[in-house]
Design goal:
Blueprint lengths: L15 E14 L2 E7 L4 E7 L12 E10 L7 E12 L13 H6 L1 H4 L3 H23 L3 E2 L5 E2 L11 E4 L2 E5 L4 H11 L1 E9 L12 E10 L3 H22 L1 H6 L5 H4 L7 E3 H10 L12 H8 L6 E4 L12 E2 L2 E5 L1 E6 L4 E9 L3 H10 L8 H8 L5 E7 H9 L20
Parallel strand pairs: 3-5, 6-10, 12-13
Antiparallel strand pairs: 1-2, 1-4, 2-3, 4-5, 7-9, 8-9, 10-11, 11-18, 13-16, 14-15, 16-17, 17-18
The structure holds 4-amino-1,4-dioxobutan-2-aminium adenosine-5'-monophosphate and magnesium ion (MG).
The site of 4-amino-1,4-dioxobutan-2-aminium adenosine-5'-monophosphate (4AD) has 23 residues, from strand 11, strand 17, strand 18 and helix 12.
Length: about 425
């Protein structure tokens, strides 16, 4: 018999059907057994009147349950199952994750099992909803998805965070960002985006850094800096309102305060790097002109606004080689970081790209990046070069913020961090 998803059970009151899943709780009172079963879509209590269940069903025992769906106003789902038949599919003796508190290291070492817990499954469903909404927004707005390579010959961001690989005896690297390739694809297709894994050999042990993370990278021909900011804020508004629509029960499981998310409506405020420094000075967090903003600075700035805020026009020397200097003030670039509220920091980084071949060549030299390696990238400026802009949204940081999590390690099924590549 076909099985029914737990989430759909309320539509089947009075019917006899089959559910397959795993036992999360079991208790007995005499000949009545209460078996709570989850199947990844929801959780249902199954009531089994039977004298023959002598042993309690262990946590995570896999079962097939056949029975009648009954109304039950006390349960969150609104229904329960009166069991006719129960079959054990897979035993689960001594399941290592118990209701007692476990430390993070223990849980991360058992990540292959930890993903089954209600909190972790809720986060993964929120991640899925964010991906679906992000892709949906771009697909509906005329962007073509196009995938850059993951194995690359050179740095896209900074050469200090490259993961090297041995490519048949030649050096190659795992992609830090698909951007340079997305620029080529934008010249072919107009508006494009990629969504895939990116890698940073970053020795940072913060709650925002992974060594492998997923980035959404739109790139747009004929789009200048200001228009790119408008795309970013609309994309983010759509993602957040979509998550609120799709994931209400999961956000509830996480205890997420929804009011800061409900305020995420475009347009977002914009401040320049210079204004950011002035604000930080009044907050007793002085930063010298030319220095980067750290996590405490980003948090303090974001706290001054009720929605995400763009910090624009960073010093040219701080940012990547490809960013377009402001024509009126070349010591700053037409770039922005989008800071999330509630201390989540930078979630999007983007810029207008240099489209002038001479200027790009100059910048490559200043950054000591060899022309030969970037010759194809220079070709994009030789043949029909146009102003263009793009940005990269870090999926895990967006998920951490939307779900209200302490650390990005819970936002991805199997996090890769400075000290963990297992399981
Ligand atoms: O600011 P980043 O380094 O920008 C780029 O890579 C551009 N080439 C993107 C583009 O314009 N197409 O990274 C973009 C975003 C950051 O804002 C952050 O959200 C995320 O990627 N990110 C990380 N997320 C988790 N762990 C890390 N180590 C991350 N580094 C960047
Ligand atoms: Mg950045």
């Amino acid at each position: 018999m076909m099985n029914t998803r737990v989430i759909d059970l309320p539509h089947h009151v009075g019917h006899q059907l089959t559910v397959r899943g795993w036992v999360t709780h079991f208790r007995s009172s005499g000949k009545i057994h209460f078996i709570v079963v989850r199947d990844g879509t929801g959780v249902v209590q199954c009531v089994y009147k039977h004298d023959q269940v002598q042993e309690p069903l262990a946590t995570e025992t896999a079962v097939t349950i056949n029975g009648e769906v009954r109304k039950d106003v006390r349960s969150p789902l609104g229904v329960e199952i009166a069991v006719r038949h129960l079959e054990i599919i897979g035993e689960s003796p001594d399941y290592p994750i118990t209701p007692k508190e476990h430390g993070t290291d223990f849980l991360m070492a058992h990540r292959h099992l930890w993903v089954r817990s209600p909190r972790q499954s809720a986060i993964l469903r929120i991640r899925a909803a964010i991906i679906r909404r992000a892709r949906g927004f771009l697909d509906e707005h005329g962007f073509t998805v196009a995938d850059p390579p993951i194995i690359t010959p050179a740095a896209a961001e900074g050469s200090t965070t490259l993961f090297g690989i041995d490519y048949f005896g030649e050096p190659a690297f795992l992609s830090q960002s698909g951007q340079l390739y997305m620029e080529a694809l934008a010249m072919a297709l107009g508006k494009v985006y990629s969504f895939g894994p990116t890698f940073r050999a970053e020795k940072s042990k913060t709650r925002r850094h992974l060594t492998e993370f997923w980035m959404l990278e739109p790139e747009m021909a004929f789009v200048e800096f200001e228009e790119s900011l408008r795309w970013q804020e609309q994309l983010l508004e759509s993602i957040v309102s979509g998550a609120l629509e799709d994931c209400a029960p999961d956000l509830l499981v996480l205890g997420r305060d929804l009011s800061p998310l409900e305020r995420v409506k475009a347009p977002f405020p914009r401040i320049t790097y210079d204004e950011a420094l002035a604000r930080l000075a009044t907050l007793n967090l002085p930063v010298e002109w030319g220095e980067d903003l750290g996590a405490p600075h980003e948090t303090a700035l974001a706290e001054q606004f009720d929605r995400p805020v763009f910090v624009t026009h960073y010093p040219t020397a701080l940012k990547a080689f490809y960013m377009q200097p402001d024509p009126h003030r070349p010591e700053v670039v037409l770039a922005a970081d989008l800071l999330a509220p509630e201390g989540y920091g930078e979630i999007v980084g983007g810029s207008q790209r240099i489209h002038d071949p001479e200027l790009l060549q100059q910048r490559l030299q200043q950054h000591r990046l060899p022309d030969v390696v970037y010759s194809w990238y220079l070709d994009l400026r030789r043949y029909g070069s146009v102003p263009h802009s793009g940005f990269g949204m870090g999926l895990e940081r967006v998920v951490a913020w939307v779900a209200g999590l302490e650390h990005v390690r819970e936002t991805t099924p199997f996090a890769r961090t400075l000290n963990r590549v297992w399981p």
